[in-house]
Amino acid sequence: MYKYIIPAVVCLFLSACTATNPPEAPEATGKWESLYTSVDNIMKGYK
Length: 47
What we know:
The chain is an all-alpha fold. It contains two helices and no strands.
């Protein structure tokens, strides 16, 4: 059960953070992109 809950919570958390983070901040976008790629890798591991 936790296999599916944890990635969903992580994705919700990251999307909430990017919503509050202005996209015009260039130093922030690099961080968020690397976070999203690591989340993608985690999701692949769960499948």
